[in-house]
Every structure is written in C-alpha cells, then in structure tokens.
C-alpha cells in the first residue's frame, strides 16, 4: 500500500488534512497510551484533521462554537470509522480513535492537593502528539497544536493500523514551537487571552483551572478525585460504575486562547 494513495483516498472521504506517523515515534509516550497498547501489531498511525470555520471561531464564546465543536467531532468520528473500514477491506487491522472521549476513560493524576489543586489528564492516545509526529503541525506555549494555514482551528482524530505505511517527516523533532508559532511576534496572545491564567506558557495547561472556569459546579476537586479512583478499573467496564453525571457533564466550552491566535487568519 502506497502512502500517497492512502492519503488521497482519505482526502476523498472528506479529510482536510492527513498525515502518517510511524509507531516507532511513539516510544516515549506514557505506558498505556502507545499505539501498540490498542493494536499490538500496529505499524502506523494515520492522523486526520478537519477545520473549524474561522467565522465560527470569531464568535467565541458562543453557542455557535459549542454546536460546531460537537459537529466537527461527530464528522471526525465518522471519518476515522470509514478510514478503518477501508483499511480492513485492504487486509489490514485498524483501530480508530475518536477525537474526544469522556473523562472517565482518561488517565487523571492529582499533582497537588489543597488550594493549589492541580491535575494532569491523559487521553487514551494524544491526537495532538500524533499530529505533530505525522508532520501536520507543531506544539505551542498554549499546549494546542497549530498547522500552517489554519493555526489552531483544526481538530484531529487518529487511526492506528497494521499497514506499514511510509511516514511523513515531522516538521521538527521536538514538541516545541518556533517554526509556525512565533510568540515574540504575537506577544503570547493565547496566554494573555486566558481569563483564569490556566496557561503558564510552557506548553502545558492547568486542566483544573481551565475546567473549573468552564463548569464550576461540575468540575470540582471531588469530580477529579472520583475519576482517579476509577483508574484501577479496566476502561471497558468503567461506564458501568461511574455515576450518570460523570458520563456526560454538560460544561461549557471556552476557546478564548484558540481564538486569540493570529496564525491562519490571512486570506
Ligand atoms: S479554554 Fe479558556 S480557560 Fe481553558 S486555557 Fe483556553 S482560554 Fe483558558
Ligand atoms: S497566539 Fe502566538 S504564541 Fe500562541 S499559539 Fe498562536 S502564535 Fe503561538
């Protein structure tokens, strides 16, 4: 199977961006979050991206953005399903990973207790890292990924596959910024835009501050501590145990950091 042919096919399915990473590039990912943890014979990770319309991002914060965020996620879920089906028809194994997942499926660690309560959250597979490894973009001080023509206004999902595809070269070999994202030019607009200082500017995000701003009643310390307790339970049966309000909390989105980024605004 030729990589270019596969990417062309996936673009015909509707992907705006497609990149391919070798599973070897994920060797430094935390245990339980590597492609081989989902598909033992995996060789490649195909990352697809769909743009979020700029005019919608300009309305942040708004119900239009909330609706579009869900819509793009649904489209991505459907897209990775179609990509996986195509790979299976070609005789390979494929494991599609949705763009988003409920918190109870994530790894949550409490880093600090008390007033400076701090948590770290890991998705099953980091689509952001996968996108960078597949040559689609680079990390930023705000922890999101930017791509040359769209800035951060793109969402990603991935398909892990046994197909031995030729990988795309990463734009750079570290998870840092400087090629596309130039903070000295914008004056760290993303960091300044955060109303609760949840972005220290070192490429991380204070998940607790960010979530608490978006849903103070939902994202309490107890909410996260309960999820930490679930970590010992295999993900496939967690849903049977978590309380209903942990399954689909209806918190608001924010996205002010994303809206502030100037990359990709030029026509
Ligand atoms: S989404 Fe909002 S609260 Fe969260 S880091 Fe960005 S600007 Fe801050
Ligand atoms: S706002 Fe500036 S520092 Fe932040 S991601 Fe965009 S270019 Fe980089």
Q: Secondary structure elements and their pairing?
A:
Elements: H1 3-12, E1 17-22, H2 35-38, E2 44-51, H3 54-57, H4 63-89, E3 94-97, E4 107-112, E5 118-122, H5 127-133, E6 138-139, E7 145-146, E8 154-161, H6 183-186, H7 189-193, H8 207-214, H9 221-230, H10 235-238, H11 256-259
Antiparallel strand pairs: 1-2, 2-8, 3-8, 4-5, 6-7
The protein binds iron/sulfur cluster (2 copies).
**What structural class results from the helix and strand content?**
alpha+beta
Give me the Rg, rounded. Answer: 18 Å
Question: How many domain modules?
Answer: 1
Main sheet overview: 4 strands, antiparallel
Q: Count the E strands.
A: 8
* Count of helical regions: 11
The helix fraction, in percent, is 25-40%
Shape by Cα distribution: globular
Q: Strand-and-helix sequence, N→C?
A: HEHEHHEEEHEEEHHHHHH
Strand order of the largest sheet: 1-2-8-3
Low-confidence stretches: none
CA-CA gap between termini: 36 Å
The portion of residues forming beta strands comes to: 15-25%
Bound molecules: iron/sulfur cluster
Q: Averaging pLDDT over every residue, what do you get? A: 93
List the defining traits of the structure above:
8 strands, 11 helices, 4-stranded antiparallel sheet, 267 residues, binds iron/sulfur cluster, 15% strand
Task: Tell me what you see in this structure.
- The chain has one domain.
- The protein is 33% helix and 15% strand.
- The chain contains eleven helices and eight strands.
- It has helices spanning 3-12, 35-38, 54-57, 63-89, 127-133, 183-186, 189-193, 207-214, 221-230, 235-238, 256-259; strands at residues 17-22, 44-51, 94-97, 107-112, 118-122, 138-139, 145-146, 154-161.
- It has a four-stranded antiparallel sheet with strand order 1-2-8-3, with helices on both faces. The protein has a two-stranded antiparallel sheet with strand order 4-5.
- The structure holds iron/sulfur cluster (SF4) (2 copies).
- One iron/sulfur cluster binds at residues 193-194, 196, 198-199, 205, 210, 213, 254-257.
